[in-house]
């Protein structure tokens, strides 16, 4: 399983990596400090035909500078890699804004909304629902 973690906070990236690795020791994890870096990574995989490395799951922060999580999702919809493999996106956020929850529920790629800090039981529950 390939997991892409996108968060602008280094500490949250480390926490999320550790939680994923503890829950899924076999997972290949790639972390990006920005949504732009994540899009560049996906483009790199596509250009170099490394399709086997495309993510199965994306853990995505909502509130990030320059490009937020929802803007990333819109760009992801335009990505040619999406035609090859559709990832399950889990929003991992400290946002309590009801509009963020509503937007995430309405987006077809988003399969879950998890509060920060990421906890293993919350991720496990969603992973079980997604049949991974």
UniProtKB/TrEMBL annotation:
Pfam families, per database record: Response_reg
Keyword Phosphoprotein belongs to the record: yes
Domain Response regulatory residues, every copy: 2-131
Modified residues (4-aspartylphosphate): 61
Signal peptide region: none
InterPro entries: CheY-like_superfamily, Sig_transdc_resp-reg_receiver, TCS_response_regulator
Gene Ontology biological process: phosphorelay signal transduction system
The entry's keywords: Phosphoprotein
SUPFAM superfamilies: CheY-like
Protein name: Response regulator
Organism expressing this protein natively: Thermaurantimonas aggregans
